[in-house]
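Report of the visiting student (M.T.), summer placement. My assignment was to run the structure pipeline on a short list of targets and document each run. The first record concerns SCP domain-containing protein.
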Amino acid sequence: MTFSRIILLALVATPLVAFAQATGLVPCSGPDCQACDILKLIQNIINNFFIPFAVMLAVIGLAWDGFKMVTSGSDNPLLHSVFRQRLKNIVIGFILMLGAWVIVDTVMKLFLNDQQFGSWNKIQCIAQPVPTQGAFANVGTTGTSTTPTVITNASSTAISGTVGGKPYLCTDCVDLRSLGFNCKESQCFLDKGTAAKLAQLSSTYPLRITEAMPPTVRHSAECHSTGHCVDATISNVTNASEAVIFANTASAAGIRAVWEGADCATRDKIRAATGNPRSAYCKSDSGFGHITGTHYSLYSN
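After the run finished, the structure tokens were exported:
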């Protein structure tokens, strides 16, 4: 390959690389990435870089060899034959590339329903539900548990202990019962800041706190070990529409509300309405098989 052709290819490739970067080759970021995104990355590279580059390369090849054939100034038929063969090879290669795609596309559309299976040439990654700080993830009660140590002073309460072998500690807690909350357990404490946010929410929604500090079972969510989240039931939230309204009201008060229940249809409605796959979970979701009844996990934002 001559030096001039290398320069020409570099001039064409540079804007193609910039275009590929601008379109966002990487389909995810940080903890949101999953195995499926690797395949989507490959698809993005092919669609945004290799295909445009192949088309541009074919055009350059045609233009360059055509230009050389016209300007060669040679009456040598063998030389002209070489140029014509190059042009022919470029055209045939390009037709084969497009033809292969058209054939596969036609066959796939004949035998597969796009509405049911999706487009064959598009990779669609579905977010996998995972237990997060916004999820009540019970990991069992194995291990040792201790009687909570409660130290109360004039302004706050410190509570500590272990449950299922996991330590918990809240150094600036307040008794939710003293704030008028209805609690399932006899001991019902929460971090002061989180309690203040819940108090705003309780003026509209009657919260019954079913899990606070000290935790009664071991949780994977760390906030259950520090007193920054609770589980609660709400009597006046009975369907998906009301659940979405409650979640918005909670968010305005600085609380992230996550619906958890056995009915996966309700979960789907809440997710669709909020556009957030982590706003609701049901019993069939990974890590949520322990769910027996509808409740909310409420977390301080």
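The radius of gyration is 31 Å. The beta strands are 149-152, 157-163, 166-175, 182-183, 189-191, 207-211, 229-234, 255-261, 280-282, 295-300. I thank the supervising group for their guidance throughout the placement.
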